[in-house]
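Dear Dr. H.,

I hope your travels went smoothly. While you were away I took the liberty of generating a structure for the chain from your last submission, since the lab meeting agenda had it listed for discussion. I wanted you to have the full record in hand beforehand rather than looking at slides cold. The sequence, exactly as received, is reproduced here:
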Amino acid sequence: MSAPARVITLHIDDREVGAHTDQTILDVARENGIFIPTLCHLKGLTPIGACRICLVEVAGFNKLLPACATKVTDGMRVVTHSERLDRYRRRVVEFLFASGNHVCSVCVSNNNCELQSMAQLTGMTHLTMPYRYPRLRVDASHERFVQDDNRCILCQRCVRVCDEIEGAHTWDVMGRGIEARVITDLNEPWGESSTCTSCGKCVHVCPTGALSIKGTAAAEMKKKTHFLAQYWTLKEDRS
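The corresponding predicted structure, in token form, is as follows:
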């Protein structure tokens, strides 16, 4: 049985703030109106620190730590914005663009894409590294939805929402490193999945155009994540 959460004090960007020991740096920052950018994180889903966009500096640690997955401690001193962090975040966004095939002008999520917004936020106007141009699949076998691996950033939101909220666990990750891919069931076409409930939750939590509704034209895909707020409220009421 875990110990009950204690009230502590820490500093974020030289601001003294109160928190509970069961909270993460990101939780406390958002409670206090301190902005930390994220891509893989969504309230209501288990944090996994996959995108590394929310990295922060913590006194006493040489390496940068993910704010979404690092619990606060008493007396902790955190820096959320610095020249070093800006450089790291911009480089992460560059890697995401370089490792896939992101052509915003023809994407269904153009102007409604979190990766695109992150590029604007970090000031990434061009790449300083070569594109990989990988040959990736587009799976349109599902009667309602499309999966485009070219636009996937491996945030695993689809995996988590399918497992934790829908309870189907249709999605998972196959492979390692740069060869990792999000798959349905045992790497079967989405349309042949025996576990998919066609709920569409995975499509609406996807931050890019990797998952979309069939028939959606460029810049027409609008994501609806209201169900996450309902789930989170219900979870808090039960705790």
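Two observations you may find useful: The mean pLDDT is 94. Strands lie at 7-12, 15-20, 55-58, 65-66, 77-79, 138-139, 145-148, 171-174, 181-184, 211-213.

With kind regards,
E. W.
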